[in-house]
Structure formats: structure tokens, C-alpha cells
Amino acid sequence: MLGKEYGKVDTAGRFKFPSAYKKQLIAVIEQGFVIRKSIFEECLELYPRAEFENEKNATIAKLNPYNRTDRLLIRKISEGNLVELDSSDRILIPADQKKAAQIEKDIVMNARGNVIEIWDEKAYRTSVEQPDVDYADMLEKRLGNTQS
């Protein structure tokens, strides 16, 4: 998926799913989505259902359900709520997830590969628009020494 979109969450916790994303996901919309709190960021993650299941199953396959730490990870990785577009192309954010991600009204939706991050707009700016972060330097350090 591609794109960064802006939206608003209404008092019921719903937001309009952007038409740009809908066009990209038309083949999987009927299956629904899974929304969960990000493990790494202060945002929510919206997965097409099949993508969530594939990622969850691949990760769980690497863990040992008889290991206490792995069981905690399995539980955390499996957290998520099934959501779907309503007749007005809105998605309802579960109240506990909305609260966990501190989403108020204005949101930013950022496509990151097969997942859409849903951020409170203020939190997104704080996370991404850090003046002391040099993204070019970060990329050079991470990828600059790759060989073709």
C-alpha cells in the first residue's frame, strides 16, 4: 500500500476509510481488517485480515508455547479486533485501543507496507517530525554498505 492520509474520528470512534486505500485494497475489503495497538509505536495498526493472520502465524511458529516468555509474546501478537467498513466506508476503533493510542480527533493514516498505521496527529508529528533526526544519515548507516 502507498500513501499518507488525514482524517477525523467522530465521537463514536469512527473514521472514514480513505478512498485511496480502498482502491488499493478492493480485493480484500470483504474479508475485513484487524486493528491492534502497535507493539513498537504509539499508534494503531490496521491489517487486511489475511495479512494479519499470515504475520501472526509466521511469528508464532517461531515461538515455543511451553515457554512462559514466548506465551506472553504469543498473547500480545494475537491481540487484535476484527473490524470492517460500514455502509458509509467508516471503521470503528474499539474504545480500549483508541484510548491506548491516545487518539483524540485528528488522525494520520500512514501506509507501511501491508499495514496502515493510525496515529493521533499530534503523536505522529512528535514521532516523525523530529528536528534532530537525520533520515538520510540513518539510511546511509543502515543501507549504505550494501553490495549489489
Strand elements, count: 8
Q: Count of helical segments?
A: 6
- What is the fold-level CATH name, i.e. the topology? Chemotaxis protein chec
Outline type: globular
Task: Report the CATH superfamily.
Answer: Transcriptional regulator MraZ domain
Order of helices and strands: EEHEEHHEEHEEHH
**Main beta-sheet strand count, sense and barrel state:** 6 strands, antiparallel
CATH architecture assignment: 3-Layer(aba) Sandwich
Structural class: alpha+beta
User: What oligomeric state is this?
Assistant: single chain
Name of the CATH class: Alpha Beta
Number of domains: 1
Strand order of the largest sheet: 1-7-8-4-3-5
Describe the structure using short key phrases.
alpha+beta, two-stranded antiparallel ribbon, six-stranded antiparallel sheet, Chemotaxis protein chec, 148 residues
